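Entries read chain and fold; for instance:
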Amino acid sequence: MSASLPGSRDLPASQYDLSTYWGRVKQSAEISDPRTLLVSSADLENAKRLISSYKQGQTGSMTPDLWQAKKIVDSTLHPGESPTSYTKEFLGAVEPIDEFSDTGEPVLLPFRMSCFVISNLIVTAGMLTPNLQTTGTLLWQITNQSLNVAINSANANKSSPLATSTLVRSYLIAVSASCSVALGLKALVPRIRRISPATKVILQRLVPFAAVASAGALNVFLMRGEEIRKGIDIYPMLSEEEKTRKGIDGIETKSLGKSKKAATLAVGETALSRVLNSTPIMVLPPLILVRLQQMEWLRSRPRLTLPVNLGLILTTSIFALPLALAAFPQRQAVQAQSLEKEFWDKGGEGGNVEFNRGI
Protein backbone atom coordinates (compact mmCIF):
# COMPACT_ATOMS: atom_id res chain seq x y z
CA MET A 1 0.00 0.00 0.00
CA SER A 2 0.97 3.68 -0.21
CA ALA A 3 2.30 3.73 3.39
CA SER A 4 5.20 1.52 2.24
CA LEU A 5 6.58 4.25 -0.05
CA PRO A 6 9.17 6.85 1.07
CA GLY A 7 8.08 10.17 2.51
CA SER A 8 6.78 11.47 5.85
CA ARG A 9 3.65 13.16 4.51
CA ASP A 10 0.52 11.03 4.83
CA LEU A 11 -1.85 10.70 1.91
CA PRO A 12 -5.55 11.30 2.55
CA ALA A 13 -7.22 8.04 3.55
CA SER A 14 -9.63 8.22 0.63
CA GLN A 15 -11.21 10.63 -1.80
CA TYR A 16 -14.53 9.56 -0.27
CA ASP A 17 -15.96 10.32 3.15
CA LEU A 18 -15.27 7.12 5.09
CA SER A 19 -17.45 8.28 7.98
CA THR A 20 -20.48 7.61 5.76
CA TYR A 21 -21.73 4.25 4.54
CA TRP A 22 -21.81 5.20 0.85
CA GLY A 23 -18.33 6.67 1.09
CA ARG A 24 -17.08 3.30 2.36
CA VAL A 25 -19.02 1.49 -0.37
CA LYS A 26 -17.23 3.53 -3.04
CA GLN A 27 -13.88 2.91 -1.37
CA SER A 28 -14.58 -0.84 -1.13
CA ALA A 29 -15.50 -0.93 -4.81
CA GLU A 30 -12.17 0.68 -5.64
CA ILE A 31 -9.94 -1.66 -3.66
CA SER A 32 -11.74 -4.71 -5.12
CA ASP A 33 -11.77 -3.41 -8.71
CA PRO A 34 -10.49 -6.28 -10.96
CA ARG A 35 -9.33 -3.77 -13.59
CA THR A 36 -6.26 -2.98 -11.49
CA LEU A 37 -5.01 -6.50 -12.28
CA LEU A 38 -4.32 -5.27 -15.82
CA VAL A 39 -1.87 -2.59 -14.65
CA SER A 40 1.59 -3.09 -16.16
CA SER A 41 4.89 -2.90 -14.28
CA ALA A 42 5.57 0.45 -15.93
CA ASP A 43 2.20 1.80 -14.77
CA LEU A 44 2.89 0.58 -11.22
CA GLU A 45 6.30 2.26 -11.15
CA ASN A 46 4.77 5.50 -12.43
CA ALA A 47 2.07 5.30 -9.73
CA LYS A 48 4.73 4.75 -7.04
CA ARG A 49 6.70 7.72 -8.35
CA LEU A 50 3.63 9.99 -8.18
CA ILE A 51 2.81 8.86 -4.63
CA SER A 52 6.40 9.32 -3.45
CA SER A 53 6.43 12.81 -4.97
CA TYR A 54 3.36 13.76 -2.89
CA LYS A 55 4.66 12.16 0.32
CA GLN A 56 7.95 14.01 -0.02
CA GLY A 57 6.17 17.35 -0.43
CA GLN A 58 7.04 17.82 -4.10
CA THR A 59 3.37 17.83 -5.11
CA GLY A 60 1.02 20.31 -3.48
CA SER A 61 -2.37 18.62 -3.50
CA MET A 62 -4.20 15.49 -4.59
CA THR A 63 -5.10 15.33 -8.29
CA PRO A 64 -7.13 12.79 -10.31
CA ASP A 65 -3.84 11.20 -11.43
CA LEU A 66 -2.70 10.93 -7.81
CA TRP A 67 -5.96 9.32 -6.72
CA GLN A 68 -5.62 6.79 -9.55
CA ALA A 69 -2.01 6.15 -8.55
CA LYS A 70 -3.09 5.57 -4.94
CA LYS A 71 -5.74 3.13 -6.12
CA ILE A 72 -3.15 1.16 -8.11
CA VAL A 73 -0.60 1.13 -5.29
CA ASP A 74 -3.09 0.25 -2.55
CA SER A 75 -4.51 -2.65 -4.57
CA THR A 76 -1.11 -4.05 -5.58
CA LEU A 77 1.52 -3.60 -2.87
CA HIS A 78 1.83 -5.24 0.52
CA PRO A 79 -0.30 -3.36 3.07
CA GLY A 80 1.28 -0.91 5.44
CA GLU A 81 -0.90 1.45 7.46
CA SER A 82 -0.74 4.98 8.72
CA PRO A 83 -3.25 6.04 11.40
CA THR A 84 -5.61 7.32 8.70
CA SER A 85 -5.38 4.59 6.09
CA TYR A 86 -8.21 2.35 5.04
CA THR A 87 -7.30 -1.33 5.08
CA LYS A 88 -8.72 -4.37 3.38
CA GLU A 89 -11.15 -6.90 4.73
CA PHE A 90 -11.50 -10.52 3.72
CA LEU A 91 -13.80 -13.44 4.36
CA GLY A 92 -11.10 -15.35 6.24
CA ALA A 93 -9.36 -14.61 9.52
CA VAL A 94 -6.26 -12.50 9.94
CA GLU A 95 -4.76 -10.38 12.70
CA PRO A 96 -5.19 -6.59 12.55
CA ILE A 97 -2.60 -4.76 10.46
CA ASP A 98 -0.04 -2.77 12.45
CA GLU A 99 0.57 0.92 11.90
CA PHE A 100 3.95 0.64 10.20
CA SER A 101 5.31 0.67 6.68
CA ASP A 102 5.79 -2.60 4.82
CA THR A 103 7.94 -4.17 2.12
CA GLY A 104 6.52 -2.26 -0.85
CA GLU A 105 6.59 -5.46 -2.91
CA PRO A 106 3.59 -6.50 -5.02
CA VAL A 107 1.20 -9.05 -3.52
CA LEU A 108 1.05 -12.26 -5.56
CA LEU A 109 -1.63 -11.62 -8.16
CA PRO A 110 -4.17 -14.39 -7.29
CA PHE A 111 -4.20 -13.22 -3.66
CA ARG A 112 -4.77 -9.48 -4.18
CA MET A 113 -8.06 -7.98 -3.02
CA SER A 114 -8.66 -6.84 -6.61
CA CYS A 115 -8.50 -10.54 -7.62
CA PHE A 116 -10.76 -11.64 -4.78
CA VAL A 117 -13.85 -12.05 -6.97
CA ILE A 118 -11.99 -14.12 -9.55
CA SER A 119 -10.03 -16.25 -7.06
CA ASN A 120 -13.16 -17.10 -5.09
CA LEU A 121 -15.43 -17.70 -8.07
CA ILE A 122 -14.63 -21.39 -8.64
CA VAL A 123 -14.35 -22.21 -4.93
CA THR A 124 -17.67 -20.57 -4.11
CA ALA A 125 -19.34 -22.28 -7.07
CA GLY A 126 -18.00 -25.60 -5.80
CA MET A 127 -19.39 -25.05 -2.30
CA LEU A 128 -22.76 -23.99 -3.72
CA THR A 129 -23.08 -26.94 -6.10
CA PRO A 130 -26.59 -28.42 -5.68
CA ASN A 131 -26.83 -31.89 -4.12
CA LEU A 132 -23.14 -32.02 -3.17
CA GLN A 133 -22.10 -35.29 -1.52
CA THR A 134 -20.08 -35.66 1.70
CA THR A 135 -16.67 -35.96 0.01
CA GLY A 136 -17.35 -32.96 -2.19
CA THR A 137 -18.54 -30.94 0.81
CA LEU A 138 -15.35 -31.66 2.74
CA LEU A 139 -13.04 -30.97 -0.19
CA TRP A 140 -14.63 -27.62 -1.08
CA GLN A 141 -14.72 -26.43 2.54
CA ILE A 142 -11.03 -27.33 2.95
CA THR A 143 -10.21 -25.62 -0.36
CA ASN A 144 -12.06 -22.49 0.72
CA GLN A 145 -10.24 -22.22 4.04
CA SER A 146 -6.91 -22.91 2.31
CA LEU A 147 -7.57 -20.05 -0.10
CA ASN A 148 -8.46 -17.77 2.82
CA VAL A 149 -5.17 -18.58 4.55
CA ALA A 150 -3.22 -17.91 1.34
CA ILE A 151 -4.94 -14.53 0.89
CA ASN A 152 -4.41 -13.56 4.52
CA SER A 153 -0.76 -14.62 4.51
CA ALA A 154 -0.02 -12.81 1.23
CA ASN A 155 -1.63 -9.57 2.48
CA ALA A 156 -0.39 -9.67 6.08
CA ASN A 157 1.86 -6.84 7.22
CA LYS A 158 5.40 -8.16 6.76
CA SER A 159 6.79 -5.82 9.42
CA SER A 160 4.77 -7.78 11.96
CA PRO A 161 4.46 -11.28 10.50
CA LEU A 162 1.83 -13.70 11.70
CA ALA A 163 3.36 -16.53 13.74
CA THR A 164 3.30 -19.87 11.92
CA SER A 165 1.75 -21.57 14.95
CA THR A 166 -1.06 -18.99 15.01
CA LEU A 167 -1.62 -19.39 11.28
CA VAL A 168 -1.74 -23.20 11.52
CA ARG A 169 -4.06 -23.11 14.53
CA SER A 170 -6.35 -20.66 12.77
CA TYR A 171 -6.44 -22.84 9.66
CA LEU A 172 -7.19 -26.05 11.55
CA ILE A 173 -9.91 -24.43 13.64
CA ALA A 174 -11.52 -22.87 10.57
CA VAL A 175 -11.43 -26.16 8.65
CA SER A 176 -12.83 -28.10 11.61
CA ALA A 177 -15.60 -25.59 12.24
CA SER A 178 -16.68 -25.22 8.62
CA CYS A 179 -16.62 -28.97 7.90
CA SER A 180 -18.45 -29.80 11.14
CA VAL A 181 -21.19 -27.25 10.50
CA ALA A 182 -21.53 -28.23 6.84
CA LEU A 183 -21.77 -31.98 7.50
CA GLY A 184 -23.91 -31.53 10.61
CA LEU A 185 -26.51 -29.36 8.88
CA LYS A 186 -26.37 -31.52 5.77
CA ALA A 187 -27.43 -34.49 7.91
CA LEU A 188 -29.89 -32.51 10.05
CA VAL A 189 -31.95 -30.66 7.44
CA PRO A 190 -33.47 -33.78 5.75
CA ARG A 191 -34.65 -34.99 9.17
CA ILE A 192 -36.55 -31.82 10.02
CA ARG A 193 -40.28 -32.42 10.00
CA ARG A 194 -43.18 -30.01 9.56
CA ILE A 195 -41.52 -28.07 6.74
CA SER A 196 -42.27 -28.36 3.06
CA PRO A 197 -39.89 -30.04 0.59
CA ALA A 198 -39.29 -26.66 -1.06
CA THR A 199 -38.18 -25.17 2.27
CA LYS A 200 -35.83 -28.11 2.83
CA VAL A 201 -34.23 -27.46 -0.56
CA ILE A 202 -33.64 -23.82 0.36
CA LEU A 203 -32.17 -24.75 3.75
CA GLN A 204 -29.86 -27.30 2.13
CA ARG A 205 -28.60 -24.68 -0.32
CA LEU A 206 -27.78 -22.34 2.61
CA VAL A 207 -25.66 -24.91 4.47
CA PRO A 208 -22.36 -23.66 2.90
CA PHE A 209 -23.17 -20.12 4.05
CA ALA A 210 -23.72 -21.29 7.62
CA ALA A 211 -20.43 -23.21 7.55
CA VAL A 212 -18.32 -20.34 6.15
CA ALA A 213 -19.93 -17.64 8.33
CA SER A 214 -19.64 -19.61 11.57
CA ALA A 215 -16.02 -20.57 10.88
CA GLY A 216 -15.10 -16.96 10.09
CA ALA A 217 -16.78 -15.51 13.18
CA LEU A 218 -15.36 -18.19 15.49
CA ASN A 219 -11.88 -17.60 14.13
CA VAL A 220 -12.06 -13.89 14.93
CA PHE A 221 -12.74 -14.52 18.62
CA LEU A 222 -10.12 -17.27 18.89
CA MET A 223 -7.36 -15.34 17.14
CA ARG A 224 -8.09 -12.00 18.77
CA GLY A 225 -9.06 -13.17 22.22
CA GLU A 226 -5.80 -11.72 23.57
CA GLU A 227 -6.96 -8.26 22.46
CA ILE A 228 -10.11 -8.57 24.55
CA ARG A 229 -8.07 -9.67 27.57
CA LYS A 230 -5.39 -6.97 27.27
CA GLY A 231 -7.15 -4.20 25.35
CA ILE A 232 -6.25 -2.28 22.18
CA ASP A 233 -4.71 1.16 21.67
CA ILE A 234 -7.07 4.11 21.46
CA TYR A 235 -6.28 7.61 20.22
CA PRO A 236 -7.84 11.05 20.71
CA MET A 237 -10.13 12.10 17.86
CA LEU A 238 -8.36 14.86 15.90
CA SER A 239 -9.97 17.74 14.08
CA GLU A 240 -9.16 18.25 10.39
CA GLU A 241 -6.92 21.17 11.34
CA GLU A 242 -4.97 19.03 13.82
CA LYS A 243 -4.60 16.23 11.27
CA THR A 244 -3.24 18.67 8.69
CA ARG A 245 -0.78 20.20 11.16
CA LYS A 246 0.50 16.83 12.36
CA GLY A 247 0.84 15.64 8.76
CA ILE A 248 2.96 18.66 7.85
CA ASP A 249 5.12 18.41 10.99
CA GLY A 250 5.42 14.62 10.74
CA ILE A 251 4.17 14.15 14.31
CA GLU A 252 2.51 10.84 15.18
CA THR A 253 -0.57 10.69 17.39
CA LYS A 254 0.28 8.96 20.68
CA SER A 255 -1.87 6.23 22.15
CA LEU A 256 -3.94 7.11 25.22
CA GLY A 257 -3.57 3.55 26.46
CA LYS A 258 -5.25 0.19 25.98
CA SER A 259 -9.00 -0.29 26.37
CA LYS A 260 -10.66 -3.68 26.88
CA LYS A 261 -14.10 -2.24 26.10
CA ALA A 262 -12.84 -0.88 22.78
CA ALA A 263 -11.29 -4.27 22.04
CA THR A 264 -14.57 -6.07 22.73
CA LEU A 265 -16.39 -3.71 20.39
CA ALA A 266 -13.72 -4.05 17.69
CA VAL A 267 -13.62 -7.85 17.79
CA GLY A 268 -17.42 -8.14 17.94
CA GLU A 269 -17.89 -5.88 14.93
CA THR A 270 -15.23 -7.75 13.01
CA ALA A 271 -16.90 -11.10 13.72
CA LEU A 272 -20.24 -9.69 12.57
CA SER A 273 -18.60 -8.25 9.46
CA ARG A 274 -17.39 -11.75 8.53
CA VAL A 275 -20.99 -12.91 8.46
CA LEU A 276 -22.10 -9.86 6.48
CA ASN A 277 -19.26 -10.26 3.98
CA SER A 278 -20.17 -13.84 3.15
CA THR A 279 -23.91 -13.21 3.07
CA PRO A 280 -24.42 -11.73 -0.42
CA ILE A 281 -22.10 -14.19 -2.18
CA MET A 282 -23.35 -17.34 -0.46
CA VAL A 283 -27.03 -16.53 0.08
CA LEU A 284 -28.29 -14.68 -3.00
CA PRO A 285 -26.96 -17.01 -5.76
CA PRO A 286 -28.34 -20.28 -4.30
CA LEU A 287 -31.74 -18.71 -3.59
CA ILE A 288 -31.96 -17.27 -7.10
CA LEU A 289 -30.80 -20.59 -8.59
CA VAL A 290 -33.53 -22.48 -6.72
CA ARG A 291 -36.07 -20.16 -8.31
CA LEU A 292 -34.57 -20.49 -11.79
CA GLN A 293 -34.49 -24.29 -11.55
CA GLN A 294 -38.25 -24.23 -11.18
CA MET A 295 -38.56 -22.61 -14.60
CA GLU A 296 -39.04 -24.72 -17.70
CA TRP A 297 -36.16 -23.24 -19.70
CA LEU A 298 -33.57 -24.32 -17.13
CA ARG A 299 -35.24 -27.66 -16.30
CA SER A 300 -35.04 -28.56 -19.99
CA ARG A 301 -31.40 -27.43 -20.17
CA PRO A 302 -29.69 -28.92 -17.08
CA ARG A 303 -26.23 -28.33 -18.58
CA LEU A 304 -26.78 -24.62 -18.15
CA THR A 305 -27.03 -24.94 -14.36
CA LEU A 306 -23.26 -24.59 -13.80
CA PRO A 307 -22.70 -21.53 -16.05
CA VAL A 308 -25.84 -19.89 -14.63
CA ASN A 309 -24.54 -20.54 -11.10
CA LEU A 310 -21.13 -19.06 -12.00
CA GLY A 311 -22.80 -16.02 -13.53
CA LEU A 312 -24.91 -15.43 -10.43
CA ILE A 313 -21.89 -15.70 -8.11
CA LEU A 314 -19.79 -13.39 -10.31
CA THR A 315 -22.51 -10.76 -10.57
CA THR A 316 -23.26 -10.86 -6.86
CA SER A 317 -19.58 -10.65 -5.95
CA ILE A 318 -18.98 -7.59 -8.12
CA PHE A 319 -22.02 -5.59 -7.07
CA ALA A 320 -22.98 -6.79 -3.59
CA LEU A 321 -19.57 -7.37 -1.97
CA PRO A 322 -18.73 -3.63 -1.61
CA LEU A 323 -22.09 -3.11 0.14
CA ALA A 324 -21.16 -5.71 2.74
CA LEU A 325 -17.53 -4.61 3.14
CA ALA A 326 -18.66 -1.09 3.98
CA ALA A 327 -20.87 -2.07 6.92
CA PHE A 328 -18.45 -0.81 9.59
CA PRO A 329 -15.78 1.92 9.42
CA GLN A 330 -12.18 0.75 9.68
CA ARG A 331 -11.33 3.57 12.10
CA GLN A 332 -14.03 3.48 14.77
CA ALA A 333 -14.87 6.57 16.83
CA VAL A 334 -16.69 6.35 20.17
CA GLN A 335 -17.36 8.62 23.12
CA ALA A 336 -14.51 8.44 25.64
CA GLN A 337 -17.08 8.11 28.45
CA SER A 338 -18.35 4.84 26.94
CA LEU A 339 -14.97 3.25 27.74
CA GLU A 340 -13.06 2.75 30.99
CA LYS A 341 -13.12 5.62 33.51
CA GLU A 342 -9.42 6.40 32.97
CA PHE A 343 -10.23 7.68 29.45
CA TRP A 344 -13.27 9.82 30.29
CA ASP A 345 -11.37 13.13 30.32
CA LYS A 346 -8.97 12.25 27.47
CA GLY A 347 -11.30 12.50 24.50
CA GLY A 348 -10.38 14.61 21.51
CA GLU A 349 -12.77 16.48 19.24
CA GLY A 350 -16.33 16.16 20.55
CA GLY A 351 -15.10 14.08 23.48
CA ASN A 352 -14.38 11.16 21.11
CA VAL A 353 -11.57 8.67 20.88
CA GLU A 354 -10.84 6.34 17.97
CA PHE A 355 -9.24 2.97 17.35
CA ASN A 356 -8.46 0.62 14.48
CA ARG A 357 -11.14 -2.07 14.31
CA GLY A 358 -8.81 -4.52 12.60
CA ILE A 359 -9.84 -6.97 9.91
The first strand starts at residue 232 and ends at 236.
